[in-house]
Write a structure and sequence with these properties.
With 113 residues, this protein is mainly alpha-helical. It has one domain: Ribonuclease III domain (Ribonuclease iii, N-terminal Endonuclease Domain, Chain A). Helices cover 53% and strands 0% of the residues. The two termini are 24 Å apart.
């Protein structure tokens, strides 16, 4: 797996200051389940399980950030802010900012993702 993403480690290091320890895991993380229809590419491992876990972790990080940032905010205000930070459009903007969309393996459009 790692052969296809041999440049991923240096790219992530330059873009975000992080160098992956396990390039195979990063390849799985960047492979959408839609790739199962691509001929000749083994995509038996894709990002859905990692996405499920990552969504939970990101939600916790965002929740803690919001609670620390404004200790007077009510539950309704915090929920609205969290919803904005965990939305597909926000995550797509983050991917644009980090310039990682080109590294995603997918079939079809990833607009709004």
């Amino acid at each position: 797996m790692a052969d296809d993403y041999s440049e991923l480690g240096p790219f992530l290091g330059a873009a975000g200051g992080y160098v992956p320890v396990d390039a195979d895991l990063f390849e799985v993380a960047l492979t959408h389940a839609s790739c199962g229809s691509l001929g000749g590419i083994d995509v038996s491992e894709h990002n859905e399980r990692l996405e499920f876990m990552g969504d939970s972790i990101w939600g916790l990080v965002v929740t803690e950030y919001i609670m620390r940032e404004d200790i007077t905010a009510g539950e309704g205000q915090m929920t609205l802010r969290r919803t904005q930070y965990i939305s597909n459009s926000f995550m797509a903007r983050c991917a644009d900012h980090l310039r990682i969309k080109h590294a995603l393996r997918h079939v079809g459009s990833i607009q709004g993702r």
